[in-house]
Amino acid sequence: MLGAKINYGGRVTQTQDIRLIGTILEGYINSDILVEGHKLSESGIYYSLAPGDKEDYMDYIRTLPLNPDPEAFGLHDNAQITTSQILTTNLLGDMIAMQPKVSSGKGKSREEQIGEMAKFLQDRTPEVFDLEKVSKKYPTAYEESMNTVLF
Length: 151
Hints:
Oligomer: single chain
Structural class: mainly alpha
Strand content: under 5%
Largest sheet: none
């Protein structure tokens, strides 16, 4: 609980959120984490490693799934189903919204309407940041966490 207070102190204000963060952290920050092979998930994919070199840790990280299951975040497997349903609904909704409306009479072709929509989106997309310029103007420093966020 102390780790949660130090890390999130003052930024998380709801009692239920504070308790949730503390409970989640207790699953990872406890004396069992010092036991080699201690499982951090039911499947055993996530576990505490034996002390080793940096490369040992990097090798373990490379074995982890690129798209982790909900268990990696302490969630039930059904969380993946719900997330997938929401993403699918949003994607289909966006696709439908971008479809040109059919009208009778002589209007623009479907391709012309799609081209106009693409140009509309491209014109409103900001330019890519010059990361070298940003890093010089706002160097990453421990005493200024906002610079890290900006970069």
